[in-house]
Records
---
Amino acid sequence: MSLTLTNSPIESHCFNLPEGDGVQLTLAPGRLLRGDPDRRDWPHFESADGKVSSGIWSGTEGAWRVEFPAGQYEFFHVISGTGAIVSDEGMRKPFGPGDAVFVPQGFRGVFEVSEKVTKQYMFVQNV
């Protein structure tokens, strides 16, 4: 097996904190479990094929269902706030400032915010 490397320009995207109001996100009523969270997104990058996106997300207190289909993954780094992801099997993973979280394809469960969370995220899908 051989590997071919090519030189290409490197495009970097640095983003640390949200600027401005961001894009307000809504939840389908069937997904909302608790609270009335204000969820906002500050997208910073999306690949031309739509398979990779990154940015900053922020949400206030609440809980809602999440389901990751086959081929969709998320990595996020918590800037501030506290919360947890809880799988349908009952495995609870709390997170807070400085934590890095990986959500695998096929994950089904609940995303909880205890104290307003701001995170840097990267989604990879359809791979």
---
Amino acid sequence: MPVDPLHSAARSPRSAPSPLTGGTGTGAVEVRRSARRRRTVSAYREADRTVVLIPARMSEAEEQRWVRVMLDKLAAQESRRMLGDTELAERAGRLSEQYLGGRARPATVRWVTNQNTRWGSCTPAEGSIRLSHRLQGMPEYVVDYVLLHELSHLLVPGHGPDFWRLLDAYPRTERARGYLEGVAASDRLPHLPAARSE
């Protein structure tokens, strides 16, 4: 039976978090400082809080400025993503028709930002499908594979032979699985230091 890369995306190790800080209308904000992080700042939503990753050397003033910048950036991304959910649902409908005879009919299909260890998930009882925001920007055939994977779970909940037979209809299954396995492996590798600028 194939290994399922959709439910094993790697989460890279992070340093210990600093205390939680309240954000205006955004829930809790957790700032995590890392000595390995040199210049970049990133943020993501995790359950009911926002996690902001910053270099350890930043001052408190820089931290506060970057928290505001990243909260604004996440809000803008989420606003744009609202439209993307409609397109994602339409795409799922087309894929169901093409590869599953239209039998998989999700009630909802949406992007989520709190799924950092899975590429996608499905709740068959509710008919809901969620795709990780980490898939955005990946090749279309990879996103289509993840959608088909989750659509197939609406018909067959487990990962038995019947499930994999459904996915055999999609010609890029193995290629997409290889792509996702490569991304997950890359996330687990220690990152090389940036090249020194002369």
---
Amino acid sequence: MWRPGEGEPTALEAEGLRQLAEYFAGKRQAFDLPLDWGAGLHERVRRAMAAIPFGETRTYGALSRQVEAPAQAVGQACGANPLPILIPCHRVLGANTLGGFSAPGGVESKVWLLRHEGAAGLLI
């Protein structure tokens, strides 16, 4: 994976960076990149998260019913998501809490992303 200061990114990395820049500039709501979805439950959960529209949220319980797995297992699969933002685990909430966020910045980053997407009404 490319990091600043480590030469030039590959074409795929450059495209991912371009799409992320568009997302943060408010010009993109979905990503169009070839992703490794994983396998089994992780794949089902990641695809379900990716299907949550920009600015909307789902609960771990709703995802658990959708993928037919216990909510705790869904939470663990969300926490194992290697591509936060691209696979929007920030859009998954607890029934009465924000839930966690394993990306850098933790829950504060999750709140920022939800506000960025206009889903902050639920935070009031």
